[in-house]
Amino acid sequence: GNGNDGTLINNPTWTSASNCKANGCLSFDGVSNYVKMSNFNYNILRNNQESMSWTLAVWARETSSNGQERILIGRQGCNGGIYTWSGGYAFAIKTTNCWTNAVSLNSTPSDMNLWHHLVAVYDNRNMSFYIDGQLVESGTFNDSIYPYSTIFGVASGGLGNYMFAGEIDDARAYNRALTANEIQATYNAMK
To answer: In this structure, are residues 80 and 89 in contact, taking their beta carbons and an 8 Å threshold?
Structure first.
């Protein structure tokens, strides 16, 4: 919405509403399909925007994992977003040296095949990561965001790498920081 519509690449599969969180979801094979948003309008995960506020939110159900990072929603390559990470989930922002100095908020291991609501809040250098309505970690970002890509994506970074295997529903990007109460209300409405 808001002019931030994506293009389905390599035919991710629409899944019925009964298996999803909101009116149907997209199923991704982890190999070739994803959503690419070339004209993403928000200043999320962009260099020289470190004092901005924004939120990324997504419902995800991972069906297969090889233990590597997989982008659920975020910018391509060295910018960041919400990832699967070492059997759990992470909100990571990559700094001037890409992965060498990534600022990452990690969660406990994920439960394979279960739906989780993942929310990354960035508010003027303060990072917060929520899973299923609960704050799991917070921190401060004191570097520069890696100046790499303007491509935004779902189930990949938008250029066909770091592919996610599973289902994604209700992926959202806000140009403001959601409050803890708003995040809890969103989770409660769909759990």
So the answer is: no
Query: Position 69: which residue type?
Result: E
Q: What is the pTM of this model?
A: 0.88
Query: SS3 letters for the chain?
Result: CCCCCCEEECCCEEECHHHCCCCCEEEEECCCCEEEECCCCCCCCCCCCCCCEEEEEEEEEECCCCCCCEEEEEECCCCEEEEEECCEEEEEEEECCEEEEEEEEEEEECCCCCCEEEEEEEECCEEEEEECCEEEEEEECCCCCCCCCCCEEECCCCCCCCCCEEEEEEEEEECCCCCHHHHHHHHHHHC
What is the pLDDT tens value at each position of the chain, 191 positions in all?
A: 566 677 888 999 998 878 899 888 999 988 888 888 766 655 665 655 666 888 999 999 988 876 666 778 777 666 678 888 777 888 887 776 665 445 566 666 667 788 999 999 989 888 999 999 999 988 888 777 766 555 667 777 555 566 788 999 998 888 899 999 999 999 999 98
Contact 32, 10 (CB under 8 A): yes
Residue with tokens 């289902």: 167
